[in-house]
Automatic annotation (TrEMBL):
The keyword ATP-binding does not apply. Residues 71-250 form the SGNH hydrolase-type esterase domain. Gene3D superfamilies: SGNH hydrolase (3.40.50.1110). InterPro entries: SGNH_hydro (IPR013830), SGNH_hydro_sf (IPR036514). It comes from Actinospica acidithermotolerans. Keywords: Hydrolase. GO terms for molecular function: hydrolase activity. This is SGNH/GDSL hydrolase family protein. The keyword Hydrolase applies.
Amino acid sequence: MGFSPRKAAAAAMLSGGGLTVLVGASVGLVVAEAKWARRTIGPPQSVPPTADGLYGEHLAREGERPLRLALLGDSTAAGYGVERPEQTPGALLAQSLVAHTGCPVLFRSEARVGACSEELPGQVDRLLEDGLEHAPQLAAIVIGANDVTHRMPVREAARQLGEAVSRLRAAGCEVVVGTCPDLGTIRPVQPPLRWLARHWSRQLALLQGAAVTAAGGSSVPIGALLGPEFAERAELFGPDRFHPSAEGYQTAIAALLPSLASAAWRLSPHTAIGLAALTGE
């Protein structure tokens, strides 16, 4: 039996209609899964402990100022979910840099729970409002997860990050950015939403890396480096199964530390004496 043009057209209409139904069903499923994931994760229930202050005070030398370290970004930078100040990413970074440089570190955080990249200008404003003399010499930024969950335009989010890095660099600050984590590892997120979350995360991370490099900063691909480990080890997530646990924050900071320690080397003469003491030079 022949396949006439009319039958071909009818088949195309049926297949097109089927595709429309399939796409519509997929979109509906993604929306339903997103709502379920939000209910499962829930809204923030607490404020992260404050870890601002001077670390390694016993290493201070007369006439020398401590290394000024700042942390910007979202809840991952702020340390949402931990109970004690010493468990926060900021405290972990400050303590690690004290150990690596042999110098005291004055730490300040401007990271905020729920922050998107559009909030980075305000965070930078607060860091620089007291003048260059008090501006950070070294800054770490962790941002991107909320840009993905809120479906912010990825190119705009990357541009905003690049501008923040550029402003800090203009103030004489070394900048290290942990790019967007892999949200495909979040357990309450199920396929197909998980696949989309992973795609969006990777897309943003790539654009962030390019923007950071163009602005004179250094980037660390958190998602690519730690995604597989977080996917396999449930203990790296906190009770809400979205934010890291104390162990998860330690793992993330360990990924950032080499770049931050390398940046500290470039901040001589402030860190030169301490680094020389460590290396015996």
